[in-house]
């Protein structure tokens, strides 16, 4: 579908979203169709990861990048796709916890090969129990 005019793409955006968000206005004409198709597929379309979970990932990711635009977008999109306030809180708490472990492991310069070996042992042990 690439190659449609800006006005054709904007008409589709308006039909899909109810308006053409201002941030689309700064996308160069020759990239507009391409960028909209990617946005539409990844943000609105059904992919291998259900939309609610993609948006919860987005919330967790942008709690770290500190992008208030993206945090707001993904929070509202997650709610539209059925996420509860509790799920949103869990996603953010998970990000906080994971980032803390990352800081710790990198800060103490944990040996990567040892870490990988031990993780394999844990994985095998847990798999044998279930």
Automatic annotation (TrEMBL):
Domain of life: Bacteria
Record-linked InterPro entries: AhpD-like, AhpD_core, CMD-like
SUPFAM superfamilies: AhpD-like
Positions of the Carboxymuconolactone decarboxylase-like domain: 34-105
Name by which UniProt lists this protein: Carboxymuconolactone decarboxylase family protein
